[in-house]
Specification:
Number of helices: 11
Largest sheet: 2 strands, antiparallel
Strand order of the largest sheet: 1-2
Distance between the termini: 42 Å
Order of helices and strands: HHHHHHHEEHHHH
Helix content: 55-70%
Structural class: mainly alpha
Length: 275
């Protein structure tokens, strides 16, 4: 308490004495380290994407287009399209060099993320939920860290900023857009997982059926937010049971009543991503 003013110091001491403060949960050292890896990887992915979009924009001004590609395939297509004597080659070549270095570093982070997910039982269990891949499961695992700190699993939606704002005054009660408070990285991955579930997951499940019905009633965008919040609540509920129960823990896929065979612990598709 580095307060030079005696009155402020006394006031803070009084707040601590009577308990009028909210405790802050400190993540474990392991979770902080994994979070640092995930944040660094996310930044590299953003930089790689920005470079690819910039190169596409420069080439497009010359009337040159090519199909969607990322990573090494992107650099190969750009090289084939420009040749060796194009006027933009001196401008784009440095960008491609930086792009190659970023892809190499991202690949190292990808290998580390796969290794961490494979060695963690909780992460493998979370990946059994349709639409959830390695990145989403690992990010949730080490962002929430200890699900038992939530009194109710439903409060995790507000913690991640996935609940709507409320404007109440007298007889007025208006629900607005989601607050977007909390961890932006996890909120982004949960939203992408909801998108994968609705558009790319072919296997039918109760969660997808609920999301499709919701999309017809309130629109696809709001349905994705609702599914993202639902996935977070299910993850937290299953994690709380894993922390408090002494016997076998329930699996999220069984909570969702997902049809089809249940994956074994060692049979995890680590190549499935959700960015």
């Amino acid at each position: 308490m580095n307060k030079s003013d005696q009155n402020d110091a006394r006031g803070l001491a009084e707040l601590v004495r009577v308990g009028w403060y909210r405790e802050v949960k400190i993540k474990s050292e392991e979770s902080q380290k994994v979070r640092a890896i995930l944040v660094a990887r996310f930044r590299l992915v953003s930089i790689r994407r920005d470079i690819e979009n910039q190169v596409r924009s420069l080439i497009k001004e010359c009337g040159l287009l090519f199909p969607r590609a990322i990573g090494q395939q992107f650099r190969i297509q750009v090289g084939e399209l420009l040749g060796e004597d194009h006027q933009l080659l001196s401008v784009i070549a440095p960008l491609l060099s930086i792009h190659e270095h970023i892809c190499q570093q991202q690949g190292k982070f990808d290998d580390e993320v796969r290794r961490l997910a494979k060695s963690d039982e909780t992460t493998r269990r979370l990946m059994t939920v349709p639409g959830v891949g390695v990145i989403t499961a690992l990010t949730f695992r080490h962002t929430i860290d200890d699900p038992s700190r939530f009194r109710s699993a439903s409060t995790v939606g507000a913690y991640l900023g996935l609940t709507p704002r409320r404007n109440q005054s007298g007889e007025t009660d208006t629900s607005g857009k989601i607050s977007r408070w909390g961890d932006r990285l996890l909120r982004t991955y949960l939203y992408e997982a909801a998108t994968v579930l609705l558009y790319r997951t072919k296997k039918w499940s109760s969660l997808k059926a609920w999301g499709m019905k919701l999309a017809k009633r309130i629109g696809m965008k709001k349905a994705k937010v609702a599914i993202a919040r639902k996935i977070a609540v299910i993850f937290t509920a299953s994690g709380s049971m894993a922390h408090h129960s002494t016997g076998a823990t329930r699996r999220p896929d069984l909570i969702l009543q997902v049809p089809g065979p249940v994956r074994r612990a060692g049979d995890v598709p680590l190549g499935r991503w959700s960015w």
